């Protein structure tokens, strides 16, 4: 059973555009939500993370929006660049009952020059 | 500060052989997690260890798989009598005592022939 559902599976965006990736979860015990970026042949790299006590967190061109009541969160990449082309994974963790991450199935982002 | 190190990066084993994957966490990190990634899929949690202790092995297959994190040396994920279905990328992550972030290594790509 997939605990974190991620969409879309793939995304093509023009350079300078906004990339939006969405995730949804059911388990209300989840209280830590990181996003990872993975290039082919590499390990996932932490991009940005949020706790449910805030609705938005921004770091540079990357923003997480969090909707606790809907149990949804999303990653926005502003001014997308070809170098952003990678696979993006959302994850969720119930930090009070364990530290394991439950990952979404990933979104392959291609930014066209 | 070196990142999480994993070796070997690529491992080829014949069916029935044993595979040993090693992970050295970041300096100062005492928590280690192992994840498996199948092609075109997200990462699946396998096991969470602290020095000399297995904290959560709920994601580990019941047979053939084992993990350890000794007082000295790297964490080791051992797969006995490998089968073709074990072919995957295995990632190790580490986190500090007071942090939620998990930092991933470059992974070991296991191919079972």
Question: Which features characterize this protein?
Answer:
heterodimer; A: 113 residues; mainly beta; 6-stranded mixed beta sheet; 5-stranded antiparallel beta sheet; 11 strands; B: 113 residues; 7-stranded mixed beta sheet; 50% strand
Kindly describe this structure.
The complex is a heterodimer of chains A (113) and B (113). Chain A is mainly beta and 113 residues long. In chain A, the strands form 2 sheets. In chain A, strands 2, 4, 5, 9, 10 and 11 form a 6-stranded mixed β-sheet that branches. Chain A has a 5-stranded antiparallel β-sheet with strand order 1-3-8-7-6, with no helix packed on it. Chain B has no helices and 11 strands. In chain B, strands 2, 4, 5, 6, 9, 10 and 11 form a 7-stranded mixed β-sheet that branches. The model of chain B has no long low-confidence stretch (mean pLDDT 93). Chain B is an all-beta fold. Chains A and B meet through strand 5 and strand 10 of A and strand 4, strand 5 and strand 10 of B.
Quaternary class: heterodimer
- Helical proportion of chain A, percent range: under 10%
Query: What is the molecular shape of chain B?
Result: globular
Q: What are the secondary-structure elements of chain A, in order, as H or E?
A: EEEEEEEEEEE
**Helix content estimate of chain B:** under 10%
Shape, principal axes of CA atoms of chain A: globular
Q: Roughly how many Å apart are the termini of chain B?
A: 37 Å
Terminal Cα span of chain A? 37 Å
Biggest interface, which chains? A-B, 22 and 26 residues
